[in-house]
Design goal:
single chain, alpha+beta, two-stranded antiparallel sheet, 2 helices, globular
Length: 104
Amino acid sequence: MTEKHRDPEYLKNARTVRARVRMCWRNGTEVRCWRTGAIIEPGMSFDVGHIEHDGGHGISNLAPESVKSNRSEGGRRGAAITNGRTPRTLPSVRRASREGLAPW
């Protein structure tokens, strides 16, 4: 876990996102990975991802993300740092149409 994932603001807002996902599941609302658009089924493991990598820990920059996509993105960024190059920017998929807490 990196230092940014130990930040008190991130921890507080990540708890809020997780609570919101659980509430959506209880209400029967579909939850999708912000990066890939894949459905995150009720009870399925998920991470709280940063929409903009260096965008801070505000609630508007955090959203549910599938474990696979979050960790592969982290691995890609980590490898780029280790190998001394700038990671290529992948297009982000923002499928949500609602406004508010996060784009999901």
